[in-house]
Write a structure and sequence with these properties.
Layout (H helix, E strand, L loop, with lengths): L8 H15 L14 H4 L14 E2 L2 E2 L10 E2 L2 E2 L29 E2 L2 E2 L26 E6 H5 L10 E6 L13 E6 L14 E3 L2 E3 L1 H10 L6 E6 L1 H5 L6 H22 L9 H6 L4 E6 L1 H14 L5 E5 L4 H11 L11 E7 L5 H14 L9 E6 L5 H14 L6
Parallel strand pairs: 9-12, 9-13, 13-14, 14-15, 15-16
Antiparallel strand pairs: 1-2, 3-4, 5-6, 7-8, 8-12, 10-11
Helix pairs in contact: 6-8, 8-9, 9-10
Bound molecules: zinc ion (4 copies).
Length: about 400
């Protein structure tokens, strides 16, 4: 729809020009100079106004007041650079009726503010086609935190990690910044588990990178990158002790997050504690099994200042819950809101009952969490297995990073 021109400035300019033209006296004929011909006395044609160079702000020109008619391309106006807020969208196709671009569901209190639908959580299994290769696949980079921590020491690959970058990362079509997921594998696994390792699932195999690829391709969630850590190497030989938790929590702060912020396009301006705190709505930690315990301890209890989203699947110990509750009852905890707390387990998982019990304890005791609004618990098909965790992680990513402040 073409918007009406509302600027009054051009009108004033024309009027002023006309008035100044009239004020100039016509020179009196000298001597017997013949009277000018009617053609010469004709009003001079009004000068064509120079076109406004337009300085757009919020879709309106600051100079002439013209309202941009918007020429949308992927949710951004090619003329004035405005970004479409996608105030509504089709619940099925997710297409915005204004700009025609796909806009993800934006959940608040378990309802999409654009279409009113509930988050389409999955509990039985992932879509069939998720087991096939996605047309748009992300890329993976291996890094070694050990070499970064101590470049003099040439023992290589002692603290390996894998960074999953979404398809089109850094391109003009998929500009950043990106949300960050720090992913923690379970006992006996390594940094490949949460990204490129193929896991048995429903008689086939699937990797979590495939799940990320499809979710991003289908715009089911906000764009993110994943940093999958090797928990054993970061916690060293203290893997299952409190000291291991402290080590991991410390290294997240001093090594992992600074590296991620300095090397990738994230929401944090820099890796200072202030900037991390500012951007914590866009930082998440996801863990399965033993990684879930670390998410609770090194994440919520140890680094609530840097992370605002948590997904904890199939892990439980009583002491973990009390450590968390202690952190969440500290005076500053409510100033560090948890935007999304998602837990779950397989229906035949030996940790199922405990995971739910812990969820209820935490949500009941921490006023910053409300079930169904920013806290979710879902039991899904499967046992203490990757089949369940791929579904759990899919569900968590659907509602994560919804806070756009
Ligand atoms: Zn203008
Ligand atoms: Zn425009
Ligand atoms: Zn739109
Ligand atoms: Zn929606």
């Amino acid at each position: 729809m073409k918007k009406k021109r509302t600027g009054l400035l051009p009108l004033f300019l024309a009027l002023a020009l006309l008035l100044s033209a009239c004020a100039q006296e016509t020179p009196a004929p000298v001597g017997n100079t013949p009277a000018p011909s009617p053609a010469e006395t004709a009003e001079p044609a009004p000068p064509t106004p120079t076109p406004c160079a337009h300085v757009w702000r919020g879709g309106v020109c600051e100079l002439c007041g013209e309202v941009c008619a918007h020429s949308w391309d992927g949710g951004v106006c090619g003329v004035c650079g405005a970004v479409c807020p996608h105030t509504s969208h089709d619940p099925e196709s997710c297409l915005c009726p204004v700009c025609g671009a796909r806009a993800t569901h934006l959940y608040s209190e378990s309802r999409c503010v654009r279409c009113g639908c509930e988050p389409p959580f999955l509990t039985r299994g992932l879509p069939e086609y998720y087991y096939e290769e996605c047309p748009e696949r992300g890329s993976m980079e291996e890094i070694d935190f050990h070499a970064l921590e101590d470049p003099e020491d040439n023992k290589l690959r002692e603290k390996p990690a894998i960074v999953y970058l979404p398809f089109g990362y850094g391109s003009a079509e998929r500009p950043g910044p990106y949300n960050v997921v720090i992913a923690l594998h379970g006992a006996g696994n390594n940094e490949h588990g949460m990204v490129d390792e193929q896991h048995a699932s429903a008689g086939r195999t699937i990797s979590l990178a495939q799940v990320y690829d499809w979710m991003l391709y289908e715009k089911r969630c906000e764009p993110f990158l994943v940093v999958s850590l090797n928990v054993y190497s970061l916690a060293e030989e203290e893997n299952f002790t409190d000291k291991g938790v402290t080590l991991l929590a410390e290294r997240l702060r001093t090594l992992v997050l600074p590296y991620v912020v300095e090397h990738y396009d994230t929401y944090a301006a820099d890796a200072s504690p202030e900037a991390m705190r500012e951007a914590r709505a866009h930082f998440a930690m996801l863990g399965v099994s033993n990684g879930s315990l670390y998410t609770l301890t090194a994440g919520i209890a140890g680094n609530l200042e840097s992370f605002g989203n948590f997904g904890c699947f199939s892990g439980n110990y009583t002491e973990t819950t009390s450590l968390m509750l202690r952190r969440l009852s500290a005076p500053d905890a409510l100033e560090l809101p948890i935007y999304c707390f998602f837990t779950g387990a397989g229906e035949t998982d030996f940790q199922k009952k405990n995971t739910l019990k812990r969820y209820e304890l935490i949500v009941d005791n921490y006023p910053g969490l409300t079930d169904g609004a920013n806290a979710f618990h879902l039991d899904v098909a499967g046992s203490h297995s990757w089949h369940s965790w791929t579904i759990n992680i899919y569900d968590a990513l659907l509602v994560m990073f919804q806070n756009r402040d």
